[in-house]
Amino acid sequence: MNFRKTMTLNITGNMKQDIVFLLYHDIDTEICPSEKKETATLNTVVAFDDFYHHMRCLYDRGYCVISVEKYFDCKKNESFSEKTVVLTFDDGHISNYDLAFPVLKKFGFTATFYIVAERIGKPWHMDRFQLRELVENGMEIGSHGLTHAYLPLLNNNDVNAELIKSKCILEKCLSRKISGFAYPGGHYTRSIVKSVQKAGYLNAASCLLGTNRISVSDDFLLKRVEIRRGVIEKDFLNALKPSFIGFYSAIDFMRRSFKHTVGLETYGYLRKKLYKAYPFKR
Fold first, then answer.
1. Are 125 and 143 contacting, i.e. CB atoms less than 8 angstroms apart?
2. 3-229 architecture in CATH?
Protein backbone atom coordinates (compact mmCIF):
# COMPACT_ATOMS: atom_id res chain seq x y z
CA MET A 1 0.00 0.00 0.00
CA ASN A 2 1.25 3.45 -0.90
CA PHE A 3 0.35 5.52 2.16
CA ARG A 4 1.34 8.81 0.55
CA LYS A 5 -1.61 8.70 -1.84
CA THR A 6 -4.02 9.17 1.08
CA MET A 7 -2.35 12.36 2.33
CA THR A 8 -3.08 16.00 1.52
CA LEU A 9 -0.02 18.23 1.15
CA ASN A 10 -0.06 21.94 1.99
CA ILE A 11 1.81 23.71 -0.80
CA THR A 12 3.62 26.96 -0.20
CA GLY A 13 5.64 29.38 -2.32
CA ASN A 14 7.85 30.37 0.63
CA MET A 15 11.36 30.47 -0.80
CA LYS A 16 12.84 31.25 2.63
CA GLN A 17 12.19 27.73 3.85
CA ASP A 18 15.16 25.83 5.26
CA ILE A 19 15.14 22.34 3.73
CA VAL A 20 16.86 19.40 5.42
CA PHE A 21 18.69 16.92 3.18
CA LEU A 22 19.15 13.58 4.97
CA LEU A 23 22.11 11.33 4.18
CA TYR A 24 22.18 7.56 4.67
CA HIS A 25 24.77 5.03 3.58
CA ASP A 26 24.32 1.33 4.32
CA ILE A 27 21.48 -0.46 6.16
CA ASP A 28 21.57 -3.87 7.84
CA THR A 29 19.60 -6.47 9.77
CA GLU A 30 20.68 -9.43 11.88
CA ILE A 31 19.83 -11.71 8.96
CA CYS A 32 21.50 -9.42 6.38
CA PRO A 33 24.51 -7.90 8.14
CA SER A 34 26.77 -5.35 6.48
CA GLU A 35 30.22 -6.38 5.31
CA LYS A 36 31.67 -3.45 7.27
CA LYS A 37 33.62 -4.41 10.39
CA GLU A 38 35.73 -1.39 11.39
CA THR A 39 34.14 0.93 13.94
CA ALA A 40 34.39 4.02 11.74
CA THR A 41 32.68 2.41 8.77
CA LEU A 42 30.20 0.36 10.79
CA ASN A 43 28.89 3.57 12.36
CA THR A 44 27.63 4.61 8.92
CA VAL A 45 25.41 1.50 8.79
CA VAL A 46 21.91 2.15 10.12
CA ALA A 47 19.91 -0.75 11.55
CA PHE A 48 16.86 -1.51 9.43
CA ASP A 49 14.42 -1.18 12.35
CA ASP A 50 15.76 2.32 13.06
CA PHE A 51 15.57 3.27 9.39
CA TYR A 52 11.97 2.07 9.19
CA HIS A 53 11.03 4.10 12.28
CA HIS A 54 12.74 7.18 10.81
CA MET A 55 10.66 6.90 7.64
CA ARG A 56 7.50 6.19 9.61
CA CYS A 57 8.16 9.30 11.73
CA LEU A 58 8.36 11.40 8.58
CA TYR A 59 5.16 9.90 7.21
CA ASP A 60 3.20 10.22 10.47
CA ARG A 61 4.18 13.90 10.78
CA GLY A 62 3.12 14.73 7.24
CA TYR A 63 6.51 15.27 5.62
CA CYS A 64 6.86 15.26 1.85
CA VAL A 65 10.02 13.21 1.25
CA ILE A 66 11.59 13.80 -2.16
CA SER A 67 14.70 13.34 -4.28
CA VAL A 68 17.23 16.06 -5.07
CA GLU A 69 15.86 16.14 -8.62
CA LYS A 70 12.35 16.78 -7.30
CA TYR A 71 13.72 19.46 -4.97
CA PHE A 72 15.01 21.41 -7.94
CA ASP A 73 11.73 20.94 -9.79
CA CYS A 74 9.91 22.41 -6.79
CA LYS A 75 12.49 25.21 -6.55
CA LYS A 76 11.97 26.10 -10.21
CA ASN A 77 8.20 26.16 -9.77
CA GLU A 78 8.40 27.86 -6.33
CA SER A 79 6.11 25.17 -4.98
CA PHE A 80 7.12 23.25 -1.84
CA SER A 81 5.20 21.35 0.78
CA GLU A 82 5.25 23.14 4.13
CA LYS A 83 7.09 20.07 5.43
CA THR A 84 9.71 18.93 2.93
CA VAL A 85 12.70 16.65 3.47
CA VAL A 86 15.14 15.56 0.77
CA LEU A 87 16.41 11.99 1.10
CA THR A 88 19.81 10.80 -0.21
CA PHE A 89 21.88 7.61 -0.08
CA ASP A 90 25.61 7.43 -0.83
CA ASP A 91 27.71 4.58 -2.27
CA GLY A 92 25.09 2.31 -3.91
CA HIS A 93 25.01 -0.48 -1.32
CA ILE A 94 22.79 -3.46 -2.12
CA SER A 95 20.94 -2.79 1.14
CA ASN A 96 19.58 0.39 -0.43
CA TYR A 97 17.69 -1.83 -2.86
CA ASP A 98 16.88 -4.80 -0.63
CA LEU A 99 15.93 -2.91 2.54
CA ALA A 100 15.41 0.82 1.93
CA PHE A 101 13.65 0.74 -1.45
CA PRO A 102 10.61 -1.30 -0.27
CA VAL A 103 10.12 1.11 2.65
CA LEU A 104 10.26 4.13 0.35
CA LYS A 105 7.67 2.57 -1.94
CA LYS A 106 5.44 1.75 1.04
CA PHE A 107 5.33 5.36 2.17
CA GLY A 108 5.32 6.90 -1.30
CA PHE A 109 8.72 8.58 -0.82
CA THR A 110 11.37 9.26 -3.43
CA ALA A 111 15.13 9.64 -2.93
CA THR A 112 18.43 10.20 -4.71
CA PHE A 113 21.00 7.38 -4.76
CA TYR A 114 24.59 8.46 -5.46
CA ILE A 115 26.41 5.58 -7.14
CA VAL A 116 30.13 4.74 -7.40
CA ALA A 117 30.26 3.76 -11.09
CA GLU A 118 32.98 1.10 -10.93
CA ARG A 119 31.17 -0.68 -8.08
CA ILE A 120 28.00 -1.36 -10.08
CA GLY A 121 27.36 -5.11 -9.96
CA LYS A 122 30.23 -5.72 -7.55
CA PRO A 123 29.72 -7.62 -4.26
CA TRP A 124 27.60 -5.69 -1.72
CA HIS A 125 26.51 -3.17 -4.36
CA MET A 126 23.54 -2.74 -6.69
CA ASP A 127 23.67 -3.89 -10.31
CA ARG A 128 22.38 -2.04 -13.36
CA PHE A 129 19.03 -3.85 -13.34
CA GLN A 130 18.36 -2.77 -9.77
CA LEU A 131 19.38 0.80 -10.58
CA ARG A 132 16.97 0.80 -13.52
CA GLU A 133 14.18 -0.43 -11.26
CA LEU A 134 14.85 2.42 -8.87
CA VAL A 135 14.55 4.92 -11.71
CA GLU A 136 11.38 3.28 -13.01
CA ASN A 137 9.86 3.83 -9.57
CA GLY A 138 10.61 7.54 -9.41
CA MET A 139 14.02 7.47 -7.74
CA GLU A 140 16.95 9.54 -8.95
CA ILE A 141 20.45 8.21 -9.63
CA GLY A 142 23.44 10.51 -9.24
CA SER A 143 27.20 10.02 -9.46
CA HIS A 144 29.47 9.44 -6.49
CA GLY A 145 32.57 9.27 -8.62
CA LEU A 146 34.22 6.51 -10.61
CA THR A 147 36.12 4.81 -7.76
CA HIS A 148 35.16 6.85 -4.65
CA ALA A 149 38.63 8.42 -4.63
CA TYR A 150 38.93 11.57 -2.53
CA LEU A 151 39.11 14.23 -5.23
CA PRO A 152 41.42 16.75 -3.46
CA LEU A 153 44.15 14.07 -3.43
CA LEU A 154 44.06 13.63 -7.23
CA ASN A 155 45.60 15.59 -10.08
CA ASN A 156 43.34 17.47 -12.48
CA ASN A 157 43.27 14.70 -15.10
CA ASP A 158 42.23 12.09 -12.57
CA VAL A 159 39.60 14.41 -11.09
CA ASN A 160 38.08 14.89 -14.54
CA ALA A 161 38.15 11.13 -15.14
CA GLU A 162 36.28 10.52 -11.88
CA LEU A 163 33.65 13.08 -12.85
CA ILE A 164 33.21 12.44 -16.55
CA LYS A 165 33.69 8.67 -16.79
CA SER A 166 31.29 7.99 -13.91
CA LYS A 167 28.68 10.22 -15.54
CA CYS A 168 29.05 8.46 -18.88
CA ILE A 169 28.84 4.98 -17.34
CA LEU A 170 25.66 5.83 -15.44
CA GLU A 171 24.05 7.56 -18.41
CA LYS A 172 24.77 4.56 -20.63
CA CYS A 173 23.50 2.18 -17.96
CA LEU A 174 20.24 4.06 -17.39
CA SER A 175 19.66 5.72 -20.77
CA ARG A 176 19.06 9.06 -19.09
CA LYS A 177 20.99 12.18 -18.14
CA ILE A 178 22.76 12.29 -14.81
CA SER A 179 22.56 15.74 -13.25
CA GLY A 180 23.61 15.21 -9.64
CA PHE A 181 26.96 14.50 -7.99
CA ALA A 182 28.03 13.82 -4.38
CA TYR A 183 31.63 14.45 -3.31
CA PRO A 184 33.25 11.18 -2.14
CA GLY A 185 33.88 11.43 1.57
CA GLY A 186 32.44 14.93 1.39
CA HIS A 187 35.87 16.23 0.37
CA TYR A 188 36.18 19.09 -2.13
CA THR A 189 38.03 22.27 -3.00
CA ARG A 190 36.78 25.32 -4.86
CA SER A 191 38.59 24.18 -8.01
CA ILE A 192 36.89 20.78 -7.75
CA VAL A 193 33.50 22.48 -7.46
CA LYS A 194 34.28 24.27 -10.73
CA SER A 195 35.33 20.96 -12.32
CA VAL A 196 31.99 19.42 -11.32
CA GLN A 197 30.19 22.27 -13.05
CA LYS A 198 32.34 21.94 -16.18
CA ALA A 199 31.67 18.19 -16.31
CA GLY A 200 28.01 18.94 -16.93
CA TYR A 201 26.45 18.34 -13.53
CA LEU A 202 23.66 20.66 -12.41
CA ASN A 203 24.09 20.22 -8.65
CA ALA A 204 26.30 18.53 -6.07
CA ALA A 205 25.78 17.31 -2.52
CA SER A 206 28.41 17.84 0.15
CA CYS A 207 28.77 16.55 3.70
CA LEU A 208 28.65 20.06 5.11
CA LEU A 209 26.24 19.97 8.02
CA GLY A 210 23.30 22.33 7.79
CA THR A 211 20.04 23.16 6.07
CA ASN A 212 19.50 24.59 2.60
CA ARG A 213 17.66 27.90 2.33
CA ILE A 214 15.74 27.55 -0.93
CA SER A 215 16.40 31.09 -2.13
CA VAL A 216 20.13 31.30 -1.41
CA SER A 217 21.68 27.82 -1.08
CA ASP A 218 24.69 26.90 -3.23
CA ASP A 219 23.50 24.26 -5.72
CA PHE A 220 27.01 22.75 -5.83
CA LEU A 221 27.53 22.61 -2.06
CA LEU A 222 24.20 21.27 -0.85
CA LYS A 223 24.35 20.68 2.89
CA ARG A 224 23.19 17.42 4.42
CA VAL A 225 22.49 15.85 7.81
CA GLU A 226 24.05 12.41 8.08
CA ILE A 227 22.09 9.75 9.96
CA ARG A 228 24.33 7.19 11.62
CA ARG A 229 24.00 3.97 13.57
CA GLY A 230 22.07 4.14 16.84
CA VAL A 231 20.02 7.26 16.05
CA ILE A 232 16.76 6.72 17.92
CA GLU A 233 13.44 8.41 17.15
CA LYS A 234 13.96 11.38 19.49
CA ASP A 235 17.41 12.14 18.04
CA PHE A 236 16.09 11.69 14.53
CA LEU A 237 13.35 14.24 15.09
CA ASN A 238 15.92 16.66 16.52
CA ALA A 239 17.94 16.23 13.32
CA LEU A 240 15.07 17.88 11.45
CA LYS A 241 15.16 21.05 13.57
CA PRO A 242 17.19 24.00 12.19
CA SER A 243 18.10 25.12 15.74
CA PHE A 244 19.54 21.70 16.57
CA ILE A 245 21.36 21.52 13.24
CA GLY A 246 22.79 25.00 13.80
CA PHE A 247 24.47 23.90 17.04
CA TYR A 248 26.17 20.95 15.38
CA SER A 249 27.08 23.08 12.37
CA ALA A 250 29.43 24.98 14.67
CA ILE A 251 31.08 21.70 15.65
CA ASP A 252 31.28 20.75 11.98
CA PHE A 253 33.06 24.05 11.29
CA MET A 254 35.68 23.13 13.90
CA ARG A 255 36.15 19.75 12.24
CA ARG A 256 36.65 21.30 8.83
CA SER A 257 39.11 23.83 10.24
CA PHE A 258 41.10 21.03 11.85
CA LYS A 259 41.09 19.04 8.60
CA HIS A 260 42.31 22.09 6.69
CA THR A 261 45.11 22.61 9.22
CA VAL A 262 46.49 19.06 9.28
CA GLY A 263 45.65 18.12 5.67
CA LEU A 264 43.26 15.51 4.32
CA GLU A 265 45.68 12.57 4.43
CA THR A 266 46.69 13.18 8.07
CA TYR A 267 43.08 13.83 9.00
CA GLY A 268 42.02 10.51 7.48
CA TYR A 269 44.82 8.65 9.28
CA LEU A 270 43.92 10.13 12.67
CA ARG A 271 40.25 9.47 12.14
CA LYS A 272 40.87 5.82 11.39
CA LYS A 273 43.41 5.13 14.12
CA LEU A 274 41.83 7.13 16.94
CA TYR A 275 38.16 6.87 16.00
CA LYS A 276 36.73 5.92 19.41
CA ALA A 277 38.35 8.93 21.08
CA TYR A 278 38.06 11.19 18.05
CA PRO A 279 35.75 14.23 18.45
CA PHE A 280 34.95 14.48 14.74
CA LYS A 281 33.28 11.38 13.40
CA ARG A 282 33.44 12.22 9.69
1. no
2. Alpha-Beta Barrel (3.20)
> What are all long-range contacts of 120-128, with beta carbons under 8 Å and residues at least 24 apart?
120/92, 120/169, 120/173, 123/35, 124/34, 124/35, 124/93, 124/94, 125/91, 125/92, 125/93, 125/94, 126/92, 126/93, 126/94, 126/96, 126/97, 128/173, 128/174
CA distance 187 to 82: 32
Mean pLDDT of 88-106: 98
Residue 214 in contact with residue 16, Cβ under 8 Å? yes
pLDDT at 267: 66
- Looking at the whole model, is its pTM more than 0.85? yes
Residue type, 52: Y
pLDDT (tens digit per residue) in 126-185: 999 999 999 999 999 999 999 999 999 999 999 999 999 999 999 999 999 999 999 999
Where do the structural domains in the chain lie, given as residue ranges?
3-229
